[in-house]
């Protein structure tokens, strides 16, 4: 390997967005595409067994091992903050839930950017383009694409009873959360194929992309910063990146574009390290500011889930089913023979979308219901039968930050979500626990005599419930918004509607885009992985469109 290399496109981050982009851009044999991933290959067996997320999160082989700053809204607690560090990125360690959000999310993005391209009816075709939905093609879903969507391969009596109780509480049954209005209760659809996790490396890199001669993949390669140049007219251009690979520092050059797809933590951090960010922050940490962009690392949004646990009688849950060696052996045998049962489980199986109070104009809560309970993620299951009803505020008003700590790329950034920092979020937290209690009190669950183990019925007032939420709530791993897009006159927007990085002077930095969940102006009303793929699908079209324009000679403006 030499100390420099040149490509047409350099994609930084082989996660959900990066894998799709690599596939689309390298489809043109004339485009030389480099995909860079800091983690290793996705050949760890627990990546592919659905329940293996338990062994991937918190594992340095597959997780960046981030943690949040102590958070006042969480009564001083710090949370583990998993981010995928392997081929496939977060799609290799996430909950596998296929969810688009609500149509109003994307219509809001369109208003925020002034671009109709982000309206629901314009993003729906981008979702459908890469879908391979088990129902087949119809008005709402695609078939034959790379991204497999299947029904879950299990059911539980207690989950069926919870669904019935939710209906009795006024939440309609739903067999498809992805038609633009996800209000309802039903089992989640998952990104799996025949009982195996279906990550973006399988979907978009293997086998076609890996066989293309114009495609190059570098794993275990750490980007140190972007390289920038000043053009003849005084504007800036991103020309490539400096990386460390196999212990050697080298420069890679992009003839057309560098695309940052390092996620809502990695992308703003890399921009800041490269001198693009809040000038005072950068200078304070020894980075020379190149473009003063106050929005880089701001606007962090996440879904905070409040985990309520209820003990049960007259049924078995995973708590006791997996409590003996014989039970574990039966679970393993079922998966080995049929690819069904608890080892095929997504972390959450049953979902519900509803309103925290009647005056809410749209569903603003999402439930993830599980036939198990534990004190905290990574802790042992309880020794008694129970279920967990986790509920999150889909549209939080709290905003946090991602900021560099030093000029060294090896130093993790400071992540400060600022959960529950607004009165609105604290009110929704309190009301969401009341909704949980109302569902559990319905007749459908009465045969199982559920009793509230956590948080406990002694907490009743708004203040008590909001404080309690700070004690027991945890992230559901949906950080977005830290490089948000916006209108040209929005000084805090990091990218424009076509995801080109702005220069803080009314223009854009040539040759540089951000394409991942960090560009969301507001968080979607659901899980974030598949919306990230949609974003990448849209961006791939724009990048290729710009390439065609660049290759077409401009007509002469004057003739002799």
UniProtKB/TrEMBL annotation:
<keyword id="KW-0560">Oxidoreductase</keyword>
<dbReference type="InterPro" id="IPR007867">
    <property type="entry name" value="GMC_OxRtase_C"/>
</dbReference>
<dbReference type="Pfam" id="PF00732">
    <property type="entry name" value="GMC_oxred_N"/>
</dbReference>
<keyword id="KW-0274">FAD</keyword>
<dbReference type="InterPro" id="IPR012132">
    <property type="entry name" value="GMC_OxRdtase"/>
</dbReference>
<keyword id="KW-0285">Flavoprotein</keyword>
<dbReference type="GO" id="GO:0050660">
    <property type="term" value="F:flavin adenine dinucleotide binding"/>
</dbReference>
<protein>
    <submittedName>
        <fullName>Choline dehydrogenase</fullName>
        <ecNumber>1.1.99.1</ecNumber>
    </submittedName>
</protein>
<feature type="domain" description="Glucose-methanol-choline oxidoreductase N-terminal">
    <location>
        <begin position="263"/>
        <end position="277"/>
    </location>
</feature>
<feature type="binding site">
    <location>
        <position position="223"/>
    </location>
    <ligand>
        <name>FAD</name>
    </ligand>
</feature>
<dbReference type="Pfam" id="PF05199">
    <property type="entry name" value="GMC_oxred_C"/>
</dbReference>
<comment type="similarity">
    <text>Belongs to the GMC oxidoreductase family.</text>
</comment>
<dbReference type="GO" id="GO:0008812">
    <property type="term" value="F:choline dehydrogenase activity"/>
</dbReference>
<dbReference type="InterPro" id="IPR036188">
    <property type="entry name" value="FAD/NAD-bd_sf"/>
</dbReference>
<dbReference type="InterPro" id="IPR000172">
    <property type="entry name" value="GMC_OxRdtase_N"/>
</dbReference>
